[in-house]
Amino acid sequence: MGGGLGFLNKKTWHPGRMDNQEKVWKKEEERAKEQSKLEDIRKQIADERQKEELEMIAAAAGHKVYVLLAYSSTLLSSPTFLIVSAGT
Predict the structure, then answer these.
(1) Number of alpha carbons in the 13 Å side-chain half-sphere of residue 71
(2) 5-39: per-residue pLDDT in tens?
(3) Boundaries of every domain in the chain
């Protein structure tokens, strides 16, 4: 006799099975990618808000505002906004 509970890891729902561990690993990878995308979107929104705030401050001070887009060499990076104001 013997065996004990060794049959459990043959069950489809057992967390020790390789296919179940693979599913968990894939879900964790998907979640990490999603979190990374969300963080990038948050950074982009913060940059846009900062740009708009600087434009409003410059306009309130009576300056003409010119917005220039400067792209970096990498294709994945977001554009950088350079705000140039000309005094009146």
Answers:
(1) 5
(2) 888 888 888 888 999 999 999 999 999 999 999 99
(3) 14-86
Question: In 10 A of CB 83, how many CB atoms?
Answer: 16
Q: How far is CA 39 from CA 5, 70, 76, in A?
A: 45, 21, 14
Structure confidence at residue 1 as a pLDDT band (50, 70, 90) = very low
Instruction: Classify residue 78 by its DSSP letter.
Output: P
pTM: 0.56
Residues 6+ apart with CB under 8 A from 77: 71
What six digits make up the tokens of 72?
Answer: 């970096």
Can you read off the two tokens belonging to residue 6?
A: 């060794």
